[in-house]
Each structure stands twice: as structure tokens, then as C-alpha cells.
Amino acid sequence: SVLIETSALPDSVVSLSQCPDGIEIYFPPLRAPAAAVALGLFGAACVALSLLAALGLLSPGSSVAYGLMAIALLGAFAAPFFVFGVVFVVIALYMLANSLTVNVTPEVIRTVRRVFGLAWARRELGCADITAIEAQISAKYQNLFGAEPYFRLVARHATQRDRDLVVAESLRGEAVKAEVQALITHHAGLNPA
């Protein structure tokens, strides 16, 4: 495969290769480390605070009433806080470790999602079934202090929404989004919107 030269695409977020029958777009791991690290730190803080609360409430040699109150407080506050913290840490690890490979030909678009290099999900959508390549603002990478939105591109199935396919993500800014959208539309043989 031959690497395609593009003007607006940052190498750290996306790389394009020309294949005999189309293009391959690769979105590597570590595309948005700041968002993942922030989420992971928040999750770790939730876990640490809930463990400290549990240690503070569990004291040996206390009365039965105190023990029942401690169990109620742990069950109502500390345990859910701990669970949410663990979930945030897992999501952060997924955000750091996942990659997306998209193969676009005039017949079909195929995607492979990998986590830690292992294939997690494989999907495909025939180009004849695609109505549009739709841009969406991706909420998971947005920043209160950043002015430029992050986009993802979704191939819309003509009749079944559950068959829609994410074909690009972590696209920062309008120029990057427009260039990747045009490349996918062209190589899939779709009419530009």
C-alpha cells in the first residue's frame, strides 16, 4: 500500500494508505490522550475517596448500631462512588488503547476496532446501502477550553439505523473532517452531500 499525501490530516490522529481497490484509513491508539487521562484521573480519585471513606467508617470494636449505620452509608454512598470510579478508569483505558482501521472500496466499507492490538469488533456495510457519510460532533473529546470541535463520521444505512457504521473519529476541526469525509465519499463512489 502507498501512503496518501493530504494537506490537513495530522499523522498522530490518522494515516491514509492507497490499496489496490480503495483506501485504508488508520486511527491509531493514543489519539486523544488528554481526554482519556483526565477521565482516568477522575475515576482514580473516585476510587481513592470511596476507599478512604470505607476505611474511616469501618472501625473494629464499635457498637452494632454504628456497624449498621456504617454498612448503610457504605452501601448508599461509598460503593456506588467506587463502582463509578472503576468504570471511568476502564473507559479511559479503552480510549487510550483502541484503534480503528477503515477499508473503503467502491463496493463495501469494512472496519476493525482493536483494543490493545487485539481485534474487538469487525463490521462492514455495502456502499449501495449507504445514504450518506454524516458528520457528528463527538462529545467524548470535547474540551471546555478548546474552541475547535472534534468530529466523527458515520456511514448511514438506508433503512436500518442499527447498521450505521462509524468510519472516522477523533477528527479535530472542520478542515480535517471535510478532507476525510471527501476521501471516504469519493472512494466509496457516493454522491457528495
Descriptive overview:
It is a single chain. This protein has 193 residues and is α+β, with helices and mostly antiparallel strands. 38% of the residues lie in helices and 32% in strands. The protein is built from three helices and nine strands. The strands form two sheets. The chain has a six-stranded antiparallel beta sheet with strand order 1-2-3-4-5-6. A three-stranded antiparallel beta sheet has the order 7-8-9, covered by helices on one side. The longest helix is centred in the middle third of the chain and has 34 residues. The chain is elongated.
Shape: elongated
Unreliable segments (pLDDT under 50, ≥5 consecutive)?
none
Provide a count of the helices: 3
Q: How many distinct beta strands?
A: 9
Strand order of the largest sheet: 1-2-3-4-5-6
Largest sheet: 6 strands, antiparallel
What percent of residues adopt helix (DSSP H or I)? 25-40%
Order of helices and strands: EEEHHEEEEEEH
On the 0 to 100 scale, the average pLDDT is: 85
Q: Pairing-aware structural class of the strands and helices?
A: alpha+beta
